[in-house]
Amino acid sequence: MPATSIHITALDGIVNVNSLFTLAVFIGLAWNPTDPNNSLIDQTQEPGCSPSPKVAENLITFHVYSFSCFLFSSLVAMGLKQAIRLSRRARAHYNHHILWAFDLAHVNETALRVGYVVSAVGSVCGSVFLMLALVNVAQIKLGKLGCGGSRHVYGAVVPLVILVPSGLLIYVCTVFYAFTR
Questions:
Q1: In the chain, how many domains are there?
Q2: Measured distance CA(123)–CA(110) in Å, rounded
Q3: What is d(CA 145, CA 151) in angstroms, rounded to the nearest whole number?
Q4: pTM, entire model
Q5: Which residues, 6 or more positions from 89, have their beta carbon under 8 angstroms from its beta carbon?
Q6: Per-residue pLDDT tens for 47-73?
Q7: Mapping DSSP to helix (H, G, I), strand (E, B) and coil, where does residue 83 land?
């Protein structure tokens, strides 16, 4: 698998998408879920629909997990990108007989493929945790799932849990296809 600009562009794409998701995580962490004025639940019409403190704890936990996964994925992708650049420079120097010492910088094809998969797994896990955090945001803002007047929360959560896994499935299939080629 030759190191081309396509590989660099793909790794840049991973880092850029992870950066956007990381920004979403930070915005989510900055939001105070225990603020009583930050809920759309009308307690007079829907008593008992407020989520428990455990939902707020899960929200923060899933945000931290998501951030960790996106950061891990980005760091792996950036490391791969640097390895490819070093390898390309080493081959250029080696071919021109300028620097022989950089011949050790050749990127192992198997290591590069594994790195792509590891980075993709980090992005997928980060996306799943971010989706779970957003489910908790919906419960905090609109009422807990399973509550009598929870049609609004289901209206927010159902598209989320259908579209995000569908997109992730397409992403995983694409990564698997690229991995096997």
A1: 1
A2: 20
A3: 9
A4: 0.76
A5: 102, 105
A6: 667 778 888 889 889 989 998 999 999
A7: helix
Of the ranges 13-17, 23-27, 127-131, 135-139, which one carries the lowest mean pLDDT score?
A: 23-27
Question: Which of 99-116 are b and which e, b meaning 16 or more Cβ less than 10 Å from the residue's Cβ?
Answer: eeebeebebeeeebeebb
How is residue 99 annotated by DSSP? -
Which domain covers residue 176, as residue numbers?
5-33+42-180
Phi/psi-derived region of residue 31, left when phi > 0, alpha when psi is between -120 and 50, beta in every other case: beta
Amino acid letter for position 2: P
- Residue 137 and residue 28 in contact, taking contact as beta carbons nearer than 8 Å: yes
Taking the mean position of all CA atoms in its chain, how far away is CA 14? 9
pLDDT digits (tens, 9 = 90+) for 10-40: 778 788 888 887 787 777 666 665 565 555 5
Per-residue exposure over 57-81, b if at least 16 CB sit within 10 Å of its own CB, e if not = ebbeebbebbbebbbbbbebbbebb
145: DSSP letter = T
Contact 138, 125 (CB under 8 A): no
- pLDDT above 70 coverage of the chain, percent: 71
Q: Which amino acid, residue 72? A: F
Q: Are 129 and 22 in contact (CB under 8 A)?
A: no
Mean model confidence pLDDT for the chain = 77
